[in-house]
Amino acid sequence: MPDQRPFYVTTPIYYISGTPHIGHAYTSIAADVLVRTARAHGPARSLTGTDEHGQKVAAAAAAAGLTPHAYVDSLAPRWRALAPAFDARFDDFIRTTDPRHARTSLALFERMRANGDVYEGVYEGWYCTHDETFWPEAKLVDGRCPNPECRRSVEWLSEKNWFFRLSAYRDRLIAHFRAKPEFLRPQARYNEMMAVLEGGLEDLSISRSSFDWGIPLPGGGVIYVWYDALINYISALGWPDDPDGLYATFWPGMHIIGKEIARFHTLIWPAMLWSAGLPEPTRVFAHGWITVEGEKMSKSLGNVIDPFALIEEFGPDPVRYFLLREAPFGSDFSISVEKLRQRYNSDLGNDLGNLLRRSLAMLQKYRDGLVPQPSEGALQERLTDLPALVNEHVMCLRFREALDEIWTVVTYLNRTIDERKPWELYKHNRANELDALLYDLCEGLRWLSLLLFPYMPAKATEMWQQLGLDGTPERLWADELVWGRLAAGTQTNPGVALFPRLEPPAP
Ligand code: MSP
Q1: Looking at residues 378-390, what average pLDDT do you find?
Q2: pTM of the prediction?
Q3: Which of 24, 34, 55, 298 has most ligand 1 atoms within 8 Å of its beta carbon, as the pocket-test mutant?
Q4: Would residue 399 count as lying in a domain?
């Protein structure tokens, strides 16, 4: 597998006034699987955080009878708790109210102004506070926000603001999209953004002057919340001073986002960076939406899935597994507790959990739990290309395909047990064959725990330890995914079932 340059992945920063739900967890889990896989090859870093400025937050704070500062501080802990609840370990959590973020945002603004891309003007047009988006009259649908997920009423603004000469970057953006189709994936989002570019780009108002909850600009007004939010990806790296060398090491990185915010990340953000003389992100992946029985999750429909309730019922790892196995990462898909329960019992309980349980039980019975001499043969050959294949899938955000690939080994090992019948080998004293088979099972399980670690860190660690290995499977693949690393004589340590069967809920 090739050496990789330092790897950096981010999630969107979530609106602090929203409620954490399974959709937010989905993006954060995906970023975590990606960064854990990247870390198996070299230095890697991840970022998440909260988006805390803007008119919507100011209004919500006022409604709660709090200052905006007190309001956002009261909400930050529940967002901080979201990723750890799913065992997603981010290297940094940025809040746009952090002083470091204000410093970077103002420096970027000044750099762009010095380069002649920022000018003063009057914004006269519509604004959707829910989406924090400016909309020209012609784009409205029935006089409402044109975002099909929103369709709320919009308000008329007439404000003296700063503008970014975004229109000047259209040709460069088109050239960039053409030269690097992998810049934005999946293809459907790429096509959508190309169509936007072909329709033309207007300059963007990047400040607001009718309220003051934002990063104050010299001379008055505050930075427009989306302009401020996008900058988080480099303020967390310490640009421009870069005291810890993080920017120099990790930028440019890649962004994982939901499909509805592709325009901000792939048109506006690269242009902002270019304007300041900085490189654009390496890639943006705009994933699909989780729905509930095909419907958008919303408070008014009463169908919002509480991520913490799912953890309560299944534990974090099965939910991580389910979300990434259920559908290709670019597609919308519908979630239900019933589907989760089914996959838990079949894929995790019957396939993986049973494989571990019966392999270690047979080793216990026939060889006192001691790993035999390394075998050579079919499994070894089968596994040779697997790490590169899995890595390639994950790096291209084909999480489901990577799991499908890993599962071929689970299926193969289960089938081998059924076909070769170790109990018969034992009965007929075919000791060499039995040793080879038991070694294959244990070494195969060791590989599985390394490959599955990014998806199910706690369960993969349990597997690792039941195999009698120390520490965790968080290791460099180049060192560990080598056939025969499991030493003969290792004392295995069978434990409790990995995925105890879930009984159907009482009717
Ligand atoms: N604050 C902005 C992002 C600024 S990034 C510089 C924002 N916040 S948000 O709270 O609305 O979060 C949106 C993101 O949450 C989506 O882009 C996606 O990553 C995730 N999801 C929220 N709901 C989702 C689903 N129902 N399904 C899948 N992911 C969704 O937009």
Answers
A1: 94
A2: 0.96
A3: 24
A4: yes
